[in-house]
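Hi F.,

I've been meaning to write this up properly since the lab meeting, where we talked about keeping a consistent format for the predictions we share between groups. The idea is simple: the sequence comes first, exactly as it goes in, then the structure tokens exactly as they come out, then a line or two of notes. No screenshots and no reformatting. I'm using this chain as the first example so we have something concrete to point to.
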Amino acid sequence: MAAEALWQDPVPLALDPVPLALDTAPLPEYGSGSLADLLPTLAAGQGVPNLTAAIPELTPADRNCVFLIDGLGWEQITAHPDEAPYLTSLLGSSRGNTGRPLTAGFPATTATSLASVGTGLPPAVHGLPGYTVRDPATGALMNQLRWKPWTAPHVWQPYPTVFQLADAAGVHTAQVSSPTFAHTPLTEVALSGGTFLGRLSGEERMDLAAEQLGAGDRSLVYTYYSEVDGKGHRFGVDSDAWRGQLMYVDRLVQRLAEQLPPRAALYVTADHGMIDIPFDEESRIDFDEDWELRAGVALLGGEGRARHVYAVPGAATDVLTVWREVLGERFWVASRDEAIAAGWFGPPGAMDERVYGRIGDVVAAAHDDVVITASVREPHESAMVGMHGSMTPVEQLVPLLEVRS
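Output, unedited:
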């Protein structure tokens, strides 16, 4: 038997996994086709000074309305023509009739994207670079959506919003949203300027947005709807509950479009897309149960598909090595400086000094259909079905559908 075995083909040795190359990550189109470029382009076309029309495909209008639907990415619309017939009919109008989407920016998450929309700045500058990030002044994690622990808003994000600049230039400016958001710190630093008008129902918001759009010779109006995202997180984007919300918001868009005053443009966009993640060990890696990933880590920030990892002093290199070894085939794993230099948070050279320490020592962005949960630290987030945050097309690409009067 031993002699026979010598003549058998040798068993091939297992090769070490090869980490994903960082230059394979699909970068946001900062400066030409990202959410941060939208309002500066519209306001510049209205004559607001010191702003650049960065999205060349858009034609100026005197009255502009942006309707942001939380969680409704480009691929969610294209995959559901029956539930969204009106939105589907507008796909060819996207991005100045090119039929192309915008990119959200990294990470593709609500706090980051809303700050990018409202300030016209990339995350590297406005300083909300994730769902939760470390505050260098305190060493604690700061939740930038819920604003906990409380931090002085204009210390955290000191730049004016595009709405404030437009209002100062004589443009009639209004935000129409849920009354819940009237006085939140995120609204203050990202979406303030002009008049905030709270309305509970979607129909009321559409009617009031149209009214406000016609209230000035030059108008800049923003309105928002959140429940597409809410149903996606809770039930997934393949659920009846989510599809029902898509059908409802499709009708809202048409309702607003049919009320546009003269010389107006409506732009329908989103802050990110969404992907359903299966509930199995292969798809959900639990940081709180994984001793390798926890080694040397002081704080785990971000969210499941876009993690900021903060190492204990002196351990950053070791943490990067381990995270690449364990996750590198399924996540793009970068050091802070690598992620910044690659342009994840904004164009190279854009990083504001005050933002640098908020970025993780290690940043991990999902490539596959996988998340890093934290069942003990983040029980609510870990139980979600729909997830987002990374740079994959399903999360990153957002519509810019256009209707003109």
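Notes:
The longest helix spans residues 240-257.
The CA atoms of residues 269 and 400 lie 5 Å apart.

If this format works for you, I'll send the rest the same way.

G.
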